[in-house]
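seq:
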Amino acid sequence: MSGGALCAAVTAHLQEACPDKHLRLLWQDEPQSTEPADDDAGRAAFLALLRAENQGIRRFDHLDGNIGYLDIRWIADAGEGARAIAAAMELVAHSRALILDLRECRGGSPAGAAMWCSYFFPDDQVHLNDFYERATDSTRQTWTAAHLPAPRHLDRPVYALTSTITFSGGEDVAYTLQAHGRAVIVGETTRGGAHPTDRHPVTEHITVTVPTARTINAVTGTNWEGVGVQPDSAVPADRALEEAYEDAKRRLA
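struct:
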């Protein structure tokens, strides 16, 4: 059995005992240090990944009917990613509707998710989520941002496309906008990973990710852990864009 297959098998057993999608063994082909994880180094690696991935923004398109489209693969950090998020929102500033494609979004920053969501609310008065941290027995609130570097997208339809790949930070954006009645979710039920984690090296090639906090949505009082984000319009992922686009055109007609 290969290292990757071993990690997948052990992860499946772990999640049978504790059904948390963030509790995983991860295999790395390149040897890693077995020293305790350095938070600064981990954050630096995450930011480097986002830079290489254009802060998670893969593509913009201006669809017929003046409907904007953004393909988002990662949820960027709210600090370093703010300019890229703003640039994307500038491109769709005058669209009559907006489609956020999260079908291949695998996660990212909770603060970045809050920044993305802030563009769809008028001010800083919307309580989005709470994060309960086990280590400190404390709860931190997240609210919409008071000031944003690009225009907000208000009073216009918003769609979020999802798939069985959509995970973590991508689910955060979809779930939060849905809970607040700000977006229609089109596609498939997402993977269901809502709990922030820490990483701990086990060997030079294996890392375990352990959930350390819990997301609590301000509207629902719960989250998408284990159940995923349920679409408002359930269609196969490869049809989600067509479905959302046609619905947007009908609503705008």
